[in-house]
Automatic annotation (TrEMBL):
Transmembrane segments: none annotated. Its main location: membrane. Residues 1-29 form the signal peptide. PANTHER family: FERRICHROME IRON RECEPTOR-RELATED, TONB-DEPENDENT OUTER MEMBRANE RECEPTOR. It comes from Glycocaulis abyssi. Keywords: Cell outer membrane, Ion transport, Iron, Iron transport, Membrane, Receptor, Signal, TonB box, Transmembrane, Transmembrane beta strand, Transport. Residues 52-161 form the TonB-dependent receptor plug domain. CDD domains: ligand_gated_channel. This is TonB-dependent receptor. Belongs to the TonB-dependent receptor family. InterPro entries: Beta-barrel_TonB, Beta-barrel_TonB_sf, Plug_dom, TonB-dep_rcpt-like, TonB_rcpt_CS.
Length: 757
């Protein structure tokens, strides 16, 4: 346990987020056996154990204990206190993740697009964002790495990575139980335990059940809106016959049966006259041809073999799959003005080998990564009211898209100590990506297609495309670090990021044919790249620590996915839509990040009461230098980088005091997020700046077995948009005027009770 706390402590201090802010003095004395700031702590941020001061990386880390202390429900909450990071639930879903780091990410979760931000679960890369809003249970820590990742990790990502690390099993029997009871009839139960079956073999598992009534109501069906109904579980077995061999087999599964998430209309119905509802969490969505259901599961086998004192061989083998069926009612009205039932199916197999070296003056890694993945999407676009107007009853534009990914890469990264003060790191990655795509788009009358229980009449095939393409890339990385004393570390780095190209699974080839454009070129979009420069200064003292980073990104061939309404008859009414994805942009992104921790009273952590203050500030200037629209015109003067506020800031004040044989922690956090745009152009869905206030009061018993807490989130009950659909500003689809928003959680209060041994 000492090693685990020390590992987290360094990673957190590196980021300016200290675990001390959320732990009591007694707990610290038990875990560390020394006053904070005096011990030597190690971290594995670069795939090897090293001192905090040796890591030239921007990373924010959160331990499982810290997340429990603040009552965190899922991984999106960590974005509130991590600079220049956006983690949100995607529009119209409950479990699909939208992630941006330093202005780079992916808004649209459609198949065929690589993620700008990589999500890892125990070093296994999740290729698709569906089922990726991970609930927090059985977690050792979560790390957020900012900037391109590729020379140290399995899959290259241009924006950064979020790593979800589960707990290793103990060599002694363990058990824990946690119950959460709160607003909107929240009732969660999380159980976990492990046991050694012999000196070399141990097994364990965790199961979690999350339920909550809706924040609002579907006024048409009477069902809850924004409710939660989730099962999640994980089992694992570990084999460790000696100090040189460690093998872990793990399986996890999640089932989300929450109701469809209906949006809030911002405009009265242009056709029906339906008024705007008072409660932003209420809806009138009427699409019900399929039931909302999300299932995801995966199995992984990881093994470490220590070959000798210098070399270790690591293997990570994994298979994952998920399936999502969802009724997306774009118009959020009973009528079928713009109704989209959809099915997403994803599967992936990955294999990674790492050869790690540790010598007197040099440490490093050599790796190989392989991924074979398939992402399929099928959805109907029922334009019922439009079809009636055009005498095409049950007008339906159906899309089937399948994208297969076959990619491999080799990478290496080594650090050499030039002198006791200076070290040089050099790395590189060669990536070969191949994409194969099948896109079939058909227009029907008579309602929903066979995938959603219908039997319509085919009137037109608008896309019938098959194609494949491959790309190769070499991405280098270099950094230099200067440590004039144990308290200070200065570093500068350069790295390149690469995000593979693909084909638009919503592209309409008939549009290309009519315009005289090559169909293959119309459907394909090329890779995007980023040149990232960073300089930083880290300081660690007995009462104060900080991480300061300045970065500059030259972002080129930016992939911009989207869809627009299409008028195929020339009557001025959009009777279908088409996907439009281009390498439209080049952007310059630079900014500053400052995170820190201050103990407000001397000897605060070893004697009596204590005060501790954490902060995180992020500034980012993100501008398009070029943005070519569908007409071939550069509109960079009006384009904006989406989901990227100029300013983000948070401050957490924690007070710890001995109480009733244990320790009481009172934690207050204010999280500010500046105004930002939902899309690449300013529009009515954009969100003004807002501040969230979260507070927790948690008591831990002196022996560490019992915990009771009270957690309030969004205590001022702010209403803030996290996503939406806009089919009125740049393009029109449907007749009702479809401008729909989705919102972050309202004020909630949760009581927690936990027992562990």
């Amino acid at each position: 346990m000492k090693t685990k706390l020390r590992t987290f402590g360094v990673a957190a201090a590196l980021a300016g987020v200290s675990p001390l802010a959320f732990m009591t003095p007694a707990a610290l004395a038990q875990e560390t056996g020394a006053a904070p700031g005096t011990e030597i702590i190690t971290v594995t941020a670069r795939r090897r154990e090293e001192s905090l001061q040796d890591v030239p990386v921007s990373v924010t880390a959160y331990s499982g204990a810290q997340l429990e202390q603040i009552g965190a429900q899922d991984i999106t909450v960590i974005a509130q206190t991590t600079p220049n990071v956006t983690l949100e639930v995607s529009r119209g879903t409950n479990t699909t993740l939208t992630a941006f780091i330093r202005g780079i990410g992916q808004q649209d979760p459609v198949a065929g697009f690589e993620a700008g931000v990589g999500l890892y679960v125990d070093d296994v890369y999740l290729n698709r964002p569906q089922a990726a809003v991970l609930d927090i249970f059985d977690v050792e820590r979560i790390e957020v790495l900012r900037g391109p990742q590729g020379t140290l990790y399995g899959r290259n990502t241009v924006g950064g990575a979020v790593k979800y690390v589960t707990r290793r099993l103990s060599d002694e029997p363990t058990f824990s139980a946690r119950v959460n009871v709160g607003s909107y009839n929240q009732f969660d139960t999380i159980l976990s335990g492990s046991a050694p079956l012999s000196d070399t073999f141990r097994v364990g598992g965790a199961i979690a059940r999350y339920t909550r009534d809706g924040f609002g109501t579907n006024l048409f069906t009477g069902a809850d809106n924004y409710n939660k109904d989730v099962w999640a579980g994980r089992i694992s077995a570990e084999f460790e016959p000696n100090d040189s061999i460690f093998v872990r087999l793990a399986y996890d599964r999640v089932e989300d049966s929450s109701n469809p998430r209906g949006g809030h209309r911002l405009l009265p119905g242009a056709l029906s006259g339906a008024p705007v509802l008072d409660n932003v969490f209420d809806t009138r969505a009427g699409l019900d041809v399929v039931r909302q259901q999300v299932e995801g599961e995966g199995v992984s086998l990881s093994a470490d073999f220590r070959l000798n004192d210098m070399w270790t061989l690591r293997s990570i083998t994994a298979y994952r799959e998920d399936s999502s069926t969802t009724p997306i009612d774009f118009d959020s009205l009973p009528a079928a003005d713009l109704d989209v039932p959809a099915i997403y199916e994803n599967e992936q197999f990955s294999q990674e080998f790492q050869l790690l070296y540790s010598g007197d003056r040099m440490d490093g890694i050599i790796g190989f990564y392989y991924l074979d993945a398939t992402a399929s999407t099928v959805f109907d676009v029922l334009l019922g009211t439009t079809g009636t107007l055009l005498s095409l009853p049950g007008l339906n534009a159906q899309t089937f898209g399948n994208v297969e990914t076959d990619t491999w890469s080799v990478f290496a990264d080594f650090t050499y100590d030039l002198t006791p003060e200076w070290s040089l790191s050099v790395g590189g990655r060669y990536t070969h990506d191949e994409r194969s795509s099948r896109v079939l788009r058909r227009t029907y009358i008579g309602g929903f297609s066979e995938f959603f229980g219908g039997n319509p009449t085919l009137i037109q095939t608008t896309s019938d495309f098959e194609g494949s393409e491959s790309w190769s890339d070499f991405s280098p990385r270099v950094s230099i670090a200067y440590r004039p004393s144990p308290e200070h570390n200065f570093y500068a780095s350069f790295s390149q990021g690469f995000k593979g190209g693909s084909f638009d699974p919503r592209g309409q080839t008939s549009v290309a044919v009519a315009a005289g454009i090559d169909v293959f070129e119309f459907m394909r979009f090329n890779p995007e790249t980023v040149d990232a420069y960073e300089a930083g200064w880290k300081f660690t003292g007995p009462r104060y620590r900080h991480a300061l980073a300045v970065f500059y990104n030259d972002y080129t061939d930016v992939q911009v996915p989207g869809s627009i309404g299409q008028d195929t008859t020339g009557d001025g009414i959009a009777d279908t839509f088409t996907g439009v994805t281009t390498n439209a942009g080049a952007a310059t992104i630079w900014g500053v990040e400052y995170e820190g921790n201050l103990a407000l009273a001397e000897d605060a952590f070893v004697q009596g009461d204590s005060w501790n203050f954490n902060w995180a500030v992020g500034y980012i200037n993100a501008q398009y230098d070029q943005f070519i629209n569908a007409l071939g015109v550069d509109v960079s003067d009006t384009a904006v980088v989406q989901n990227t506020p100029e300013w983000m800031a948070s401050g957490t004040l924690a007070y710890n005091v001995p109480l009733a044989g244990g320790d009481l922690s009172v934690i207050n956090t204010l999280a500010y997020r500046g105004s930002y745009s939902q899309f690449e152009f300013v529009g009515p869905l954009d969100q003004d700046a807002y501040t969230l206030w979260n507070a927790s009061m948690v008591w831990n018993s002196g022996d560490g077995r019992w915990q009771a807490g009270l957690h309030g989130r969004n205590l001022t009950d702010e209403r803030y948009r996290v996503s939406g659909y806009d089919f009125v500003t740049a393009t029109t689809l449907g007749l009702e005027g479809n401008l729909t928003a989705f919102y972050g959680d309202p004020r909630t209060v949760t009581a927690t009770f936990a027992y562990r041994f």
